[in-house]
Write a sequence for this structure.
């Protein structure tokens, strides 16, 4: 039986590029190679899609971090790889080669031999942040009419916008922290924006971007304890995003996270986790600053290795159950599929649970959370489930009657 | 027949050698910005003319004179030697601190010179063969030696020949860029000064970009062709402002830039002694910078650094509808000043006075000169109509750029497999006297075990160069525990300054190039070291590798 070609897309044009490389490495190593032929596709920081050569070794090997730091890639390795792209045209069933033919990747000739296609059966993006997790890529998959894993375009886009997500969920009875949305135009009159914040919330508050993921646009400036400091916090966000969300910064809040696998017929929640991170949740503290430099001795491998507590004992059981139930409800309301991670805040004194945010393509696909489940689900099986779900979703979409309007 | 065969082998090997050697020289021509004159000057000063191949040919010539006959054997030996030497030529596209970029222009020069050289070689072979087919005695080998020496010269000649064509191309590009600027019509802010211009441009861009789509160059591109290319390739309709750093390399350079991009506003950060040798005199430096002020229309905005004599003079000579002086030292006769400067935990807080109001600000950028740059950006942004409070809010959030007095804690693994943490103060960009002292002051305030300075010194300061380096070294002697001097450009001046400043001879180490210096540093680093990396120079100023 021939294996299915699974294109694993990692890297990407976002600030979470390095995180995606970690996820790519883990996925390439875990995928079941007896059933699937994983084809690594590296999306460079400048947005070029590269395949072939010894990319498999480069991403799967233990030295992968050093291979993908900005210094060694692309000048040393890039000439040995081929550039491909996904064309917004149904029927090609794979990636189209652009330009050079330097590597030895299998290809089909189509269009009377005028273009080469790298056949792909299922696309598995493991990109995070903008251009990978926000619906852009998913929209392209839809136009190209190819099977892909994970959330579709709408749920990805919705999940990326914190404000809209909270608004939609509120209508379905899912509580989140009260928040104020501040558009970029507020820079014209900071005093008024500050007054608006003070009307709705009391200090201290936390300022974060509305549309970016995973702790970018956040630093120690984001915690605003006196109202004069709100200017820099907002400015930091507006350099990167068009809107900021301001929420109360409560010191007695614990984070609780749970991952959910949504397949065609079943929904499986993972173990609940209370990540322990010092200080403010910046990208650096979550993923380790040394990861970005590719030091050989760096041991951090992303969230998978952070200090963590699973199914914490000091959190009441009903809260844990509530976390799982609410997460599944969130996924249902937003229409998610694949593996997502839902993050909550838990107020220890009042036992109140608040929805914080959803990650529609979480780092490491949260495999470490599923491994901690009883009974555990291994990453390899999770990936297989993900691929099968993607294929089913594709079949469902293809099944809809197409109505033409003239 | 044997002769023809060996002649072909030798010719092929010789041509291959020329191919490799040309590419090596091309990198230096490119670094000298395609100036044949400067390239040839470099060639002579660094004695970068060929020695290897010439040595071989001369040796063979002597052999041919002493032992007659077996000319074909000599040809084959020479061919093999050429091949070996050729293979040892480093590929400048991959090696060297500033690598060769095979741009279209570089390719044109390379192709033409290569074609010319190969033709010359073949012509020589043919004529020698024609003259004396059994000769190929020592005169032939001397002729070959001459050909080898002519390789870099031919590069210079071809470069000069192609100049008019390149100039035409450039003119066309410049016209296109000018067209684009006239269509998009952004508000153009020019920034110039002997130092501080890139940082000021960077900060101003961060501020403006947060409010409105703004165009600027990513790095320190500030030449006519550089700006032309960036405008053609990256400027977008919808960008309302453009912040252009303008480099003055000689009298007239900024005027030319302003013909391409007429500024609506200008910032003059300083008039100093940078690039003194290119200008000729300090008055010329001032006049060159003043060209930017001249180009601003009378209804425009001029922002000048009151703490710098030259900049102040320019403001006085060129009054505009809105002329503003800024200062971090005094509040007399200035429009915008800074006081209340306090350093707390890596954050510098300050108070800005502007138009009878006071505003609190802060920054994580390091060094006193940076405060001046911040004030320049603030003044310009306020003059352009953006709310002062919001401007300072953005400035508070600005993060330092790489290698401009950037503090970085680095974990390293030593040979003995220990993990140590050292602090690097990266200030590798163009060093000027003011910046160097500021960096040293920063080094002084930092906590650590040993303070180490690694630098080649400052360049392009003309007749001031020795004194400036010596002065800086005297200050360094009081702050540093060890100094690594890279290259020979300033080693004498630096040593003299360090020793008269009281540093021990054994703490002063000299290295021919940066790689040697850094590898020694890496081998000897210890936990808690603080290393100031000042002014990483292009290859031109290091000891040249062997030709």
């Amino acid at each position: 039986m021939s294996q299915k070609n699974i294109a694993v897309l990692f890297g990407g044009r976002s600030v979470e590029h390095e995180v995606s490389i970690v996820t790519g490495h883990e996925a390439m190593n875990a995928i079941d190679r007896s059933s699937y032929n994983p084809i690594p596709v590296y999306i460079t920081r400048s947005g070029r899609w590269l395949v072939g050569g010894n990319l498999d070794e480069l991403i799967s090997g233990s030295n992968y971090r050093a291979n993908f730091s900005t210094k060694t890639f692309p000048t040393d390795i890039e000439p040995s790889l081929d550039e491909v792209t996904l064309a917004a045209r149904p029927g090609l069933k794979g990636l189209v080669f652009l330009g050079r033919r330097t590597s030895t990747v299998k290809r089909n000739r189509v269009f009377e031999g005028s273009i080469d296609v790298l056949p792909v059966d299922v696309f598995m993006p493991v990109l995070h942040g903008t251009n990978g997790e926000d619906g852009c890529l998913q929209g392209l998959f839809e136009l190209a009419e190819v099977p892909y894993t994970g959330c579709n375009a709408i749920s990805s886009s919705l999940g990326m916008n914190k404000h809209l997500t909270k608004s939609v969920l509120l209508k379905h009875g899912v509580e989140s922290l009260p928040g104020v949305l501040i558009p970029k135009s507020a820079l014209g009159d900071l005093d008024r924006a500050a007054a608006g914040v003070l009307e709705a919330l009391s200090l201290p508050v936390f300022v974060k971007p509305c549309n970016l993921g995973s702790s970018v646009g956040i630093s120690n400036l984001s915690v605003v304890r006196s109202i004069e400091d709100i200017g820099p916090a907002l400015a930091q966000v507006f350099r990167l995003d068009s809107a900021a969300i301001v929420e109360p910064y409560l010191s007695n809040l614990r984070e609780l996270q749970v991952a959910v696998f949504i397949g065609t017929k079943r929904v499986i929640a993972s173990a609940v986790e209370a990540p322990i991170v010092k200080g403010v949740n910046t990208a650096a503290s979550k993923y380790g600053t040394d990861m970005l430099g590719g030091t050989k001795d760096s041991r951090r491998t992303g969230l998978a290795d952070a200090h963590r507590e699973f199914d914490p004992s000091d959190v009441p059981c009903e809260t844990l159950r509530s976390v799982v139930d609410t997460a599944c409800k969130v996924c249902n309301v937003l229409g998610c599929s694949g593996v997502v991670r839902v993050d909550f805040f838990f107020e220890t004194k009042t036992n109140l649970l608040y929805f914080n945010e959803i990650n529609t393509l979480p780092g490491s696909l949260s495999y470490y959370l599923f491994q901690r489940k009883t009974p555990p689900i291994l990453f390899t099986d999770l990936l297989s489930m993900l691929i099968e779900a993607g294929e089913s979703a594709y079949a469902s979409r293809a099944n809809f009657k197409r109505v033409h309007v003239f | 027949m044997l002769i023809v065969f060996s002649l072909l082998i030798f010719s092929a090997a010789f041509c291959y050698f020329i191919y490799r050697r040309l590419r090596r020289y091309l990198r230096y021509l490119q670094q000298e910005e395609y100036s044949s004159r400067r390239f040839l000057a470099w060639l002579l000063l660094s004695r970068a003319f060929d020695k290897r191949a010439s040595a071989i040919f001369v040796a063979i010539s002597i052999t041919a004179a002493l032992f007659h006959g077996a000319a074909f054997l000599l040809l084959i030996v020479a061919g093999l030697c050429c091949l070996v030497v050729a293979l040892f030529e480093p590929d400048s596209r991959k090696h060297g601190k500033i690598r060769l970029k095979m741009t279209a222009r570089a390719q044109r020069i390379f192709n033409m010179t290569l074609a010319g050289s190969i033709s010359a070689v073949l012509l020589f072979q043919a004529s020698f063969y024609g003259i004396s087919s059994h000769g190929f005695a020592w005169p032939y080998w001397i002729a070959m030696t001459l050909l080898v020496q002519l390789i870099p010269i031919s590069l210079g000649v071809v470069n000069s020949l192609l100049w008019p064509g390149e100039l035409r191309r450039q003119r066309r590009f410049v016209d296109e860029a000018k067209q684009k600027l006239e269509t998009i019509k952004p508000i153009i802010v020019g920034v110039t000064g002997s130092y501080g211009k890139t940082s000021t441009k960077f900060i101003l861009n961060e501020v403006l970009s947060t409010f409105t789509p703004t165009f600027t160059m990513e790095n320190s591109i500030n030449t006519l062709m550089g700006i032309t290319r960036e405008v053609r390739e990256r400027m977008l309709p919808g960008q309302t402002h453009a912040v252009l750093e303008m480099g003055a390399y000689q009298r007239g350079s900024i005027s030319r830039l302003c013909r391409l991009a007429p500024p609506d506003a200008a910032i003059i950060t300083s008039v100093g002694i940078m690039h003194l040798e290119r200008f000729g005199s300090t008055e010329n430096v001032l006049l060159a910078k003043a060209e930017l002020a001249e180009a601003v229309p009378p209804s425009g905005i001029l922002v000048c650094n009151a703490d710098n004599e030259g900049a102040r003079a320019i403001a006085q000579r060129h009054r505009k509808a809105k002329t503003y002086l800024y200062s971090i030292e005094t509040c007399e006769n200035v429009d915008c000043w800074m006081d209340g400067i306090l350093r707390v935990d890596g954050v510098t807080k300050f108070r800005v006075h502007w138009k009878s109001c006071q505003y609190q600000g802060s920054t994580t950028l390091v060094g006193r000169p940076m405060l001046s740059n911040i004030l320049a950006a603030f003044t310009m942004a306020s003059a352009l109509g953006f709310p002062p409070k919001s401007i300072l809010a953005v400035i508070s959030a600005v993060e330092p750029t790489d290698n401009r007095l950037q503090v970085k804690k680095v974990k390293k693994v030593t040979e003995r497999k220990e993990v140590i943490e050292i602090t690097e103060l990266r200030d590798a960009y163009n060093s000027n006297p003011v910046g160097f002292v500021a960096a040293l002051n920063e080094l002084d305030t930092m906590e650590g075990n040993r303070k180490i300075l690694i630098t080649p010194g400052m360049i392009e300061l003309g007749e001031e160069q020795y004194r400036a380096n010596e002065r800086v070294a005297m200050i360094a002697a009081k702050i540093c525990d060890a100094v690594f001097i890279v290259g020979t450009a300033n080693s004498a001046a630096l040593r003299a300054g360090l020793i008269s400043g009281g540093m021990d001879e054994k703490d002063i180490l000299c290295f021919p190039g940066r790689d040697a210096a850094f590898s020694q540093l890496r081998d000897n680093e210890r936990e808690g070291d603080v290393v100031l990396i000042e002014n990483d120079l292009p290859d031109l100023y290091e000891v040249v590798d062997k030709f």
Remarks:
- The domain at 185-397 of chain B is CATH 3.40.1190.10 (UDP-N-acetylmuramoyl-L-alanine:D-glutamate ligase).
- The interface with chain A takes residues 94, 206, 209-211, 360, 362, 387, 389-390, 392-394, 396-397, 411, 413, 419 of chain B (CB under 8 Å).
- The mean pLDDT of chain B is 87.
- The first helix of chain B runs from residue 2 to 31.
